[in-house]
Amino acid sequence: MRECISIHVGQAGVQIGNACWELYCLEHGIQPDGQMPSDKTIGGGDDSFNTFFSETGAGKHVPRAVFVDLEPTVVDEVRTGTYRQLFHPEQLITGKEDAANNYARGHYTIGKEIVDLVLDRIRKLADQCTGLQGFLIFHSFGGGTGSGFTSLRFDGALNVDLTEFQTNLVPYPRIHFPLATYAPVISAEKAYHEQLSVAEITNACFEPANQMVKCDPRHGKYMACCMLYRGDVVPKDVNAAIATIKTKRTIQFVDWCPTGFKVGINYQPPTVVPGGDLAKVQRAVCMLSNTTAIAEAWARLDHKFDLMYAKRAFVHWYVGEGMEEGEFSEAREDLAALEKDYEEVGVDSVEGEGEEEGEEY
């Protein structure tokens, strides 16, 4: 059935998960208690919800998700919140004391105590799947738990799944950090005056203001782009918008990769959360792209790390939890190597390699 299991780790993962499942329920017409009024015949009708929800004999829809945190307060908000009846109690796992923003506590000390229970719950969820396509892991890179412990199926013209993303976005095993961009990010008042055509929202994806990571793709080169459209979108408009983008000087591709765009179109219009800040729009696009510009984020991290590590600031907290100082310099070297990998990928191929090209065909 192409199921996805979501794993929400730490405060950030759990809070994003809360918002995510609220949206999934709205998308599929599922009530906070797990019932789906539109689905009169159990097991019949539209079963697009099966990717993210499993259906019980009583007709209740249960998220294929696990919430994990090393301290209970954030997950308790799920246990007592609007969607408390939606989740199976065994899927909400908490420890007694938190990782106190310390990676080593999450990785070595407290995380170790809880990991077997978590793996067991995930295994149970996986056993319920007939064709598991992958896991979605929600966590922050900072903090202690998230750092140390750690497409909806509607009718559409072009449906894409997780394996297609991997195939199209990852040219080398280490170059696997996609940049996510969403458009239109717009308020209701502003949307009233905007046209938001397919061409406009496609162009917006290449603007740094719409990105989820702070870097400037205009200074880097793209290896691949996956565009996922929702709502009133036809392939003809998408092709025209992409053709225009390919002619722009500011959008450069590496020379060893043809200007490949992977496109998915889903006719279900974007859903909004009541009382949310985003406007209800007829069409939206999410772009996942692999660009060498993301190395800017690594460079920023490296610089901040070097400043603190030169003074050995905060290091004692990590060493006290069983980490060794050598792990810091090892991780720093690994990130420097990753930066270099991205740099090499962006360099134009040597012209001498072109001599054999005639034989390929």
Features:
361 residues; alpha/beta; 37% helix; Tubulin alpha chain; GTP binding; GTP-binding; microtubule; hydrolase
Give a structural overview.
With 361 residues, the chain is α/β, with parallel strands linked by helices. Helix content is 37%, strand content 16%. It contains twelve helices and ten strands. Helix 2 links the parallel strand 4 and strand 5.
Please write out the topology.
Elements: E1 3-9, H1 10-28, E2 53-55, E3 61-63, E4 65-69, H2 73-80, E5 92-94, H3 103-127, E6 132-138, H4 145-148, H5 162-169, E7 179-183, H6 188-191, H7 198-204, E8 222-231, H8 235-246, E9 261-266, E10 283-291, H9 295-310, H10 315-319, H11 325-346, H12 357-360
Parallel strand pairs: 1-4, 1-6, 4-5, 8-9
Antiparallel strand pairs: 2-3, 7-10, 8-10
State the separation between the terminal residues, measured CA to CA: 39 Å
The low-pLDDT segments are 151-157, 351-361
Which structural class fits the helix and strand makeup?
alpha/beta
Secondary structure tally, helices: 12
The chain-level mean pLDDT equals 82
Strand content: 15-25%
Strand order of the largest sheet: 5-4-1-6
Compute the CA-based radius of gyration.
Answer: 23 Å
Number of strands: 10
Secondary-structure element sequence?
EHEEEHEHEHHEHHEHEEHHHH
Percent of residues in helices: 25-40%
- Largest β sheet strand count, sense and barrel closure: 4 strands, parallel
Instruction: Tell the overall outline.
Output: globular
